[in-house]
Amino acid sequence: MKNLNYGIIGNCRSAALISDTGNIEWCCLPEFDSSSIFAKLLDEKIGGSFDIICDESYTITQKYLENTSILVTTFSNGVDAFEINDFMPRYFKENGHYMIPPEIIRYFKKISGIPKFKIKYDPQLEYASGTTLDFVKDDHIISLSDSDKFDSLFLYSSFNLDAIKHSETIELTSDGYVLLAYNEKILIPTLAKINLEFERTKSYWLGWADKNTEYKKFNKEILRSAITLKLLSYQKTGAVLAAATTSLPETIGEVRNWDYRFCWIRDASMVVKVITELGHKKMARNYLQFIVDLVPDKDEKLQIMYGINKEKRLTEETLDHLSGYMGSKPVRIGNAAYSQRQNDIYGILMDVIHQQLDKFSNDIENGEELWNITKGIVWVVSNHWQEPDKGIWEFRTEDRHFTFSKILCWTAIDRAIKVAKILGKKNNVAKWEPLAQTIKEDIINNAWNENVQAFTQSYGSNDLDASVLLMESYGFIEALDPKFVATVKAIERDLSNDGLLYRYKNQDDFGLPSSSFTICTFWFINSLYKIGETKKAEKLFKKLLSYSNHLGLFSEDIDFETKRLLGNFPQAYSHLALIETAINLSNITEEEAVIGAMKN
């Protein structure tokens, strides 16, 4: 059974996925949303990859170099052994800027004996849309696309270039390297230079990890998730990606395959909020500047998502020549959902703006712009909160009055009021408070279903939805309010499947979902913790952690029966929720644990 047993490496410009056998099977250069140079992930036959081939006597193990994003794959037959340290360079330059070239370094380190391996180097540029031609030059291999769009890739190595091109056996008698570069190098790399890039990158990540807040429990899981979220941030603009991949299906053989290499306002704002809690203020600043740059006009409505370079049109198309992950077609690039209206984004963005102004009010560089955005958000919400929308799950057909969207409209006004108080804008507070109360009363009157004994997915509906669990987290309702407790219990009865949650069970545009949306299970565990069922929450959390891949990484979805990872990978949504849940559960006191045990 194939699983998403990949590690991610990156440098906040692009990323690559490396299999548990050391093969690069997904990478786009020069940036996250560029066309792929390796896409075996989406087509086993023609996608292209960079494989390391050893005979069957070798055992392969893999781990991250502690507190870094450097991935170490070890090959050993008991006598001959070596390891590959895979990374994309990232470090500070003397001028204060980051060095983040569009490059992958594979640093081969000899451990013992004389290891032997072959390299199968098969780049397929431009999503493998045409033929890629490889030519051995004096000091590099150049790969050129033979398609409508020109592209090129350069390989430099301490190993014999002809041996690489023809997959001949290489004996590792000393350390060596392979460097893949999108741009031709002016200075030819040396092993000493590669080692320097390794040490600089290692030092950067150790320094970044050292800033992470320490908790009583789960620090290892929190830090790995934090590094993963950092790898999904884009240095140039401050955007945060939903995932590093496109078209990994929610269910094998079905068509729920989307491109996630974009910045969703919802996902990114949630990421920034949790990353700030961990102590990484700079990432939050960069993201807020991204938002400021996106909204130059005071009356401009936010889109739900943007390109990482602030693109506002994300035209969706299919790549019909690719067979898809395990045959799951179509493969899509672009995302037509950018034009949808989802009213929840305003509340989620206002929540992170309030957090930043509350924590760093004396250290916010763009406070006036954020105040303008706050007023603009209030204007949009006040004029549109009563309208239906597509909702958090991006239903592509009818609009509805989704409860989560309404709650986040209330959140937008509530946080705007708090921001106004911080800034001393008393007139705005007085003007906005009645609106917040009106929205809240509307939700209480229309979203609560007396027959179901829960807040339901949308007004007048009998269907349950895991997103409603966030109503407590955003401060809409108290954790021990009988209606919230009843909602948690109802969702557990209706949406839980062996501890994993459906997003919802009602039919959507593509039929009944058959996999669990990972973040929903984290939300459920958090809700159990909030209502005092701490022992059950911790048990389910540890069980959910066991479903991660061998490196502690999560995708978007988990198959109910097999527990295999599905959907785009690694998923920012999943890892931010993991961090939030781990922080909450690490704060359980002995008294709470005793009470939780009694309740269970």
Q: How would you explain this protein's 3D organization?
A:
This protein is of the alpha+beta class and 600 residues long. It has a domain at 6-208: Distorted Sandwich (Beta-galactosidase, Chain A, domain 5). The chain has 15 helices and 28 strands. The strands form 9 sheets. It has an 8-stranded antiparallel β-sheet with strand order 6-7-8-11-17-15-14-13. Strands 1-2-3-4 form a 4-stranded antiparallel β-sheet. A 3-stranded antiparallel β-sheet has the order 5-12-16. A hairpin with a 6-residue loop joins strand 6 and strand 7.
CATH topology of the domain at 6-208: Beta-galactosidase, Chain A, domain 5
The CATH level-2 architecture of the domain at 6-208 is identified as Distorted Sandwich
Largest sheet: 8 strands, antiparallel
User: Approximately how much helix is present in the residues?
Assistant: 25-40%
CATH class of the domain at 6-208: Mainly Beta
Q: If you average the pLDDT, what whole number results? A: 93
| Rough outline | globular
Trace the largest sheet across and list its strands: 6-7-8-11-17-15-14-13
Distance between the termini: 36 Å
Gyration radius over CA: 25 Å
Low-confidence stretches: 593-600
Q: State which percent range the strand residues make up.
A: 15-25%
Find the structural class using helix and strand composition.
alpha+beta
**Count of helical regions:** 15
Based on DSSP secondary structure assignment, what is the total number of beta strands? 28
